[in-house]
Amino acid sequence: MKLRYFAWVRERIGKPEEELELPASVATIAELMQWLSRRGEEYAHAFENPKVIRAAIDRNHVKGDTTIAGAREIAFFPPMTGG
Amino acid sequence: MPIPISIRLQREPFDAAAEAAKLRRGRSDVGAIVTFTGICRGDEAGKKLRAMTLDHYPEMAETEIARHTHEAERRWPLLGVSIVHRYGRIEPGEDIVLVVTAAAHRQDAFAAAEFLMDYLKTRAPFWKQIEYAEGQSGNEMIWIEAKQSDDALAERWRPPSARPEAAE
Predict the structure, then answer these.
(1) Contact status of B37 with chain A (Cβ, < 8 Å)
(2) Half-sphere exposure of A50 (CA within 13 A, CB side)
(3) Domains of chain A
(4) Which positions in chain A touch B60 (Cβ < 8 Å)?
(5) Which H/E stretch holds residue B103?
(6) Cβ–Cβ under 8 Å, residues A26 and A35
(7) 3-state secondary structure of B161
(8) What is the per-residue pLDDT for B148?
(9) How confident is the model at residue A62 (pLDDT cuts 50, 70, 90)?
(10) Total structural domains in chain B?
(11) Are A63 and B168 a contacting pair at CB < 8 A?
(12) Which end of chain B is more exposed for a tag (fewer CB within 10 A), N or C?
């Protein structure tokens, strides 16, 4: 699974993207954030407040309870401040 | 017949007048063009800034902006749309974003431009980082936080049945 990180999520984790093998037990976006948090301090710091993290699957906004099965690219980022 | 829709993401400054001119050239059906330019101010949260840097998710920005221009087309009888969003380092006084809408009548051009800007502020994948002027907060770059007021503005375009009943 390709994971991409933006803004301060990227800064805290320390990389813009990575390819990871996800266990079958991780079924939703919320579960993926919890699983990532346990990978290390930098991930825990990035996801310490899951309520402010937004996600996209294959470039579409999704909610925490969205299942990740079939996704090719999952991105995590703070609320957007464009425009 | 499809209307001209132009969406560009770029580092370089843009020419708002030239973009608007493209939407009216050779047309006798365009009665209204609204051109909105978003500009980098010299202050943020009461402090002077030296520059802002925009991070972005390029592939998602294109699809997300296109989705909203098609939605605008569906809601209003538009005759053309042009959007340019810059990324990278931008200094006070420089342009950040451009929205141009063309229609036969002004109400549609105004409404569509406002709709598109409200969505660009909340759902286009860009993130602003501020470099404050010397002597303030050191040389730290601070990420701007999304404003609740922008979310509220975007929310008013949603049909009542689609609005969430409670905060998440």
Answers:
(1) no
(2) 14
(3) 2-77 (3.10.20.30)
(4) 56, 59, 75
(5) strand B95-103
(6) yes
(7) helix
(8) 81
(9) very high
(10) 1
(11) yes
(12) N
Show the domain range for B89.
5-157
Contact B125 A6 (CB under 8 A): yes
Give the distance from residue B12's alpha carbon to the nearest chain A alpha carbon, in angstroms: 16
Reported ipTM exceeds the 0.90 cut:
yes
In a domain, B56, yes or no: yes
Tell me whether residue B167 is in a domain.
no
CB contact under 8 A, A83 and B64: no
Among candidates A63, A75, A79 on the partner chain, residue whose Cβ is nearest the Cβ of B146? A79
CATH number for the domain that contains residue B117: 3.90.1170.40
Confidence band, pLDDT 50/70/90 cuts, at residue B54: very high
- Kindly write down the DSSP assignment for every residue of B60-75, as one continuous string: HHHHHHHHHHHHHHHH
Least confident segment among A20-29, A44-53, B159-168: B159-168
Q: Determine the Cα–Cα distance for residues A79 and A68; give it in Å rounded to an integer.
A: 20
Is 60 exceeded by the pLDDT of residue B99? yes
B38 chain-A contacts, CB cut-off 8 A:
83
Q: Which residues of B touch A6 (CB under 8 A)?
A: 55-57, 125, 127
Predicted local distance difference test score (pLDDT) of residue B168: 42
**Residue B168 within a domain:** no
- Among B58, B76, B60, B70, smallest CA distance to B123 is for B60
The verdict on a CB contact (< 8 Å) between B146 and A83 is: no
Residue B136, CB half-sphere, CA atoms under 13 Å: how many?
15
Question: Nearest CA of chain B to the CA of A14: how many Å?
Answer: 15
